[in-house]
Amino acid sequence: MPKELWINLPVKDLKKAKEFYAALEFSFHPRHEKSDEVAGLIIGEHKVLVMLFPESAFKSFTRNELADTRQGTEVLLSIDAQSKAEVDELIQKARQAGGAIFAEPSEQGFMYGAGFADVDGHRWNVLYMDMSQMPQA
């Protein structure tokens, strides 16, 4: 049974991608801090790693062409927020760091969420879920 999950994303410019995520105050794995070949974002309490690789390295792993994020979406990464204000704050940081907002913050039933694309077009959802308002089955 697997014990960990790593998500790998291709990036056009690793330095620019790291600057984007630093502006969003994402945490970086210390193992890759000084690397010009890879960066590891640490996400959440379970410390899921989102690995950022230059496109050429990513293609060598997958032995496949990369999805054109301007034409389609290869994955939607969803992260939680602790409040509506935190959703709004992260979306504002993404906008200021050069990301594109594809879904402005809005109510979605018991959820409040928004979506942004990073500088490489990878799409992220940010969701606050008010569990007290969740419909009962």
Helices and strands in order, then pairings?
Blueprint: E1 6-11, H1 14-23, E2 27-28, E3 39-43, E4 48-54, H2 55-62, E5 76-80, H3 84-96, E6 100-108, E7 111-117, E8 123-129
Parallel strand pairs: 1-4, 5-8
Antiparallel strand pairs: 2-3, 3-4, 6-7, 7-8
Plain-language structure description:
The chain is α/β, with parallel strands linked by helices and 137 residues long. It folds into 2 domains: 1-62, 2,3-Dihydroxybiphenyl 1,2-Dioxygenase, domain 1, CATH 3.10.180; 73-137, 2,3-Dihydroxybiphenyl 1,2-Dioxygenase, domain 1 (Roll). 23% of the residues lie in helices and 35% in strands. The protein has 3 helices and 8 strands. A 4-stranded mixed beta sheet has the order 1-4-3-2. A hairpin with a 5-residue loop joins strand 7 (111-117) and strand 8. The mean pLDDT is 93.
Number of domains: 2
Number of strands: 8
| Overall helicity | 10-25%
Q: In this structure, how is the largest beta sheet organized?
A: 4 strands, mixed
Distance between the termini: 30 Å
Radius of gyration: 16 Å
The count of helical stretches stands at 3
CATH fold naming of the largest domain: 2,3-Dihydroxybiphenyl 1,2-Dioxygenase, domain 1
